[in-house]
Design a protein that fits this description.
This protein is an alpha/beta fold and 118 residues long. 36% of the residues lie in helices and 25% in strands. It is globular, with a radius of gyration of 13 Å. The protein has helices at residues 12-23, 39-49, 74-83, 100-108; strands at residues 2-7, 28-35, 53-56, 70-72, 89-92, 112-115. Helix 4 links the parallel strand 5 and strand 6. The model has no long low-confidence stretch (mean pLDDT 91). The protein has a 6-stranded parallel β-sheet, sandwiched between helices.
């Protein structure tokens, strides 16, 4: 089973990745979901996929909503997810320069990196 971390999970590309994972539940599992701002959609995804890690770039005040999950933020959170032994694939589905950080960390940690950056 391939274990996937998705940065940008609430966007159009992230949602498509999750659709594929739904189609192949015996082949993929979601280990981490990451967003910049869309907390409501993220909560829906967390309830469905039950990831180990939750990453929110700009809103650490929501940490209490993620009881029982490893809540991460900032560059340190990206490093922790991308260096985790629990992650095989890093999906970078974000816009702008932010996509560079998980891409570089995924490569540095010998993960398969899939990018859809605009």
């Amino acid at each position: 089973m391939k274990r996937v971390a998705i940065f940008g999970s609430t966007g159009s590309i992230g949602n498509k990745v999750l659709e594929v994972i739904r189609l192949f539940p015996d082949e993929f599992s979601v280990v981490a979901l990451g967003v910049r701002r869309n907390i409501d959609k993220l909560m829906e995804q967390v309830n469905e996929f039950k990831p180990k890690y939750v990453y929110v770039y700009e809103m650490p005040r929501y940490v209490n909503k993620f009881n029982g999950l490893k809540f991460l933020t900032g560059y340190e959170g990206i490093v922790e997810i991308c260096s985790s032994e629990d992650v095989d694939i890093v999906v970078v589905a974000v816009d702008g320069y932010f996509g560079v950080f998980p891409t570089v960390e995924g490569i540095k940690n010998n993960k398969k990196v899939l990018t859809a950056n605009k």
